[in-house]
Amino acid sequence: MSNSQYFPDLMTPDVLLDTHKSRTFEPNKHTPHRNTVIIRNNPPIFPLARQVEEGIQEDTVFVDEVDNDVESSTDAMKPVKFLHLPPTELQKLYRAQVLRFVKQQTGKGKIERFSVLIVVGNGKGLLGLGEGKGNDYPSALGKAFPQAVRNMDYVERFEDRTLWTEMEDKFGSTRIILRPRPVGFGLACNPIIHEVFKVAGIKDASAKVWGSRNPYQVMKAVVRMLLPGHMPTLMGNGVGGEGRTMEKGREMRSAMEIEMDRGRRIMPLHT
Fold it and tell me: For residue 111, what are the CA distances in angstroms to 104, 115, 141, 142, 216?
């Protein structure tokens, strides 16, 4: 067997691997050098490989069509454009939202302000909460949805269907108890909690709400109970950091209390 079968001739151009598009930039006032940029694997070589095997193409270079439609600066700067998920994945997310609007009487007439509180998730354990305000509903939703996607975190579920244990929490004048249930029980709870459970992928659970049933407070309280970590939503910085007035006293512990509980001293990382 000849050596050519083991060692191919690298000086011979390959139809697939050497397919590329190049562009040369002549010297200008910024640089005195002549530069050549080679774009490889654009488009991917696999469609080209199939056509070469079928004998349709031999050494033709495929070039993607360039879309000349340029987005406006306003659309390009929307927060949703900077999310880590592609548009196809964003469309698959489950959503549940609460809308409220306030009318303020001024000398120029009534001014309406909209506020949207939204939870998003994939129905398989991911859950995120976002809030947005604006002069109209689309602008408020445009602020709340990207924030909810960025805040998504994993919710621990027992057997991927229910809660691990009974939980109780108090948010403002709202007190909530969440309980796990057996297979096939379903969701027996407040309508707002029902929507949050569906978004998070919890299928068997029950809940009871005492005190205020304000949808805003109920949704925030449930999300805070489900999300893990040392710094859940609306709980300051986790070591006694300041929060908003409505969040005061929501079980935020001081640094000394955490040190006494853990038996270790907390050292600040910033100087």
Answer: 5, 13, 18, 20, 22
CB 211 within 8 A of CB 221: no
Please give the CATH number for the structural domain made up of 91-234: 3.30.160.20
What dihedral do alpha carbons 137, 139, 140, 145 form, nearest 10°? 110
pTM, full prediction: 0.57
Given phi > 0 = left and psi -120 to 50 = alpha, else beta, which region is 238?
A: left
Given a cut of 50, whether residue 180 has pLDDT beyond it is: yes
Instruction: Encode pLDDT of 190-234 as tens digits.
Output: 999 999 999 999 999 999 999 989 998 899 889 888 886 544 444
Q: CA 143 to CA 134: how far, in whole Å?
A: 8
205-211 and 187-188 beta bridge pairing: parallel
| pLDDT, tens only, 91-147 | 888 888 898 888 888 888 888 888 999 999 988 888 889 999 888 888 898 889 988
pLDDT band at 152 (very low <50, low <70, confident <90, very high): confident
DSSP string, the chain: --GGGTS--TTSPPTTTT-EEEEEE---SS-SS-EEEEEESSS-HHHHHHHHHTTS-SSPPP-PPPP--PPPHHHHTSGGGG-SS-HHHHHHSEEEEEEEEEEEEETTEEEEEEEEEEEEE-SSSEEEEEEEEESSHHHHHHHHHHHHHHT-EEPP-BTTTB-SS-EEEEETTEEEEEEE--TT--EES-HHHHHHHHHHT--BEEEEEEE---HHHHHHHHHHHH--SSS-TTSTTSSS----GGGTTSSPPPHHHHHHHHTS----S--
